[in-house]
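thread: overnight batch results

M.L. [08:02]
morning all. the overnight job finished for the chain we discussed friday. pasting input first so we're all looking at the same thing
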Amino acid sequence: MPHLSIRIDFDDEGRLGPGKVALLEQIEREGSISAAGRSMNMSYKRAWELVSEINRTFEEPLVTAQTGGRAGGGAALTPRGQELIRHYRAIERKALSATAAHLKALQAISRSPRRA
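M.L. [08:03]
and the structure it wrote out:
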C-alpha cells in the first residue's frame, strides 16, 4: 500500500519531516544524540548535524546536550521538542485518515503487488 510522508517547510527557515521527528523520538528514548543516531544507522556526525539544523529552525532549542566527561554526556528533548513531536504526529494521523481511501485507490491502479 502506498504511504504518505509529511514534510513541513518553514519558509527559508528549514524543514521538518519523518526522519527528523524519528531522530527526536530516539533522542528522547536513548538520552543521547549519538546513541539515537546509531539506533537509526546514522553516523554520529549526521545525527549532530540534523540536531543542529532542527535547533536552528526554531526560536527555542528542541534538544539540549551536555558534553561528555566524568559523568558522561547526554541529550534530552526540551518541552518544546516534546510539543513538536505531538503536533507532528497529530498532523500525520489526520492526514493519513483523510487520505486513506485515495491511497487505497492509488494502490489499485499501481504496478506494485497488493498485500493481503
